[in-house]
Amino acid sequence: MTHRFNLEQLDFEFVNPVADNDPRIDRPALPQNIRRNCAIMWSHLDMLREFLNSENEFGIFCEDDIHIRKEFKLYIPEILLNYRRRNLEILLLGYLLPYKPIQLNAPKEFAEFGLNLTYHSYTEDTWGSQMYLLDRKTAAKFLEIYTVAYSEATVHDTLLTPFSPDWTLTKFGRRALIYPMLAVEMGTVVTSHTGQIDFHNRCHLAHYSLNDFI
Predict the structure, then answer these.
(1) Total structural domains in the chain?
(2) Domain containing residue 155
(3) pLDDT level of residue 188 (50, 70, 90 thresholds)
(4) Which of 62, 97, 146, 197 gives 20 to 30 Å between its CA and that of 110?
(5) CA 25 to chain centre
(6) How large is the C-alpha radius of gyration of the chain?
(7) CA 57/CA 60 separation, integer angstroms
């Protein structure tokens, strides 16, 4: 990941991974089988906290198993402009989708020139938090809502949204995703579940190309 961001001359900051002995997950109230998901969620929230400790108006947050689009830096002014223009609270720049939402079949003389980003609403069954854009207000709201008390409450209250970025951060408020993606998951997933392995692989194959991504 360091190599990829350096190639694009992008400033970035890593947050430390949430370890097994982190007091936020090493708690009797949390069953062992959900602690990994909780650790992932806390890692995302730690990114938001670091962002709020800065003076930046916007933050781009990502996971550590992604390919990033070449010339990423060129698209930042456009996505910030459209985030503001559309009054968004979250904009997905990388996500999981096993097909292309737009397929152009125009004759060659009318083919696209360069990369045209389009902005789309998305449904509750759209997954993935590979990369997203937030402003300070939304990040602060997430940290206010998703606390240790909330994570423990989800164990017993099935009406609460699960403590996972795919269920919470990406499903919040006024939201949109862009296409084509600026970040594509590498396609591997830490699980033995055949369906999940196949899904992540199909999402990768649908959007990754060697010419477009690092």
Answers:
(1) 1
(2) 2-207
(3) confident
(4) 97
(5) 22
(6) 18
(7) 11
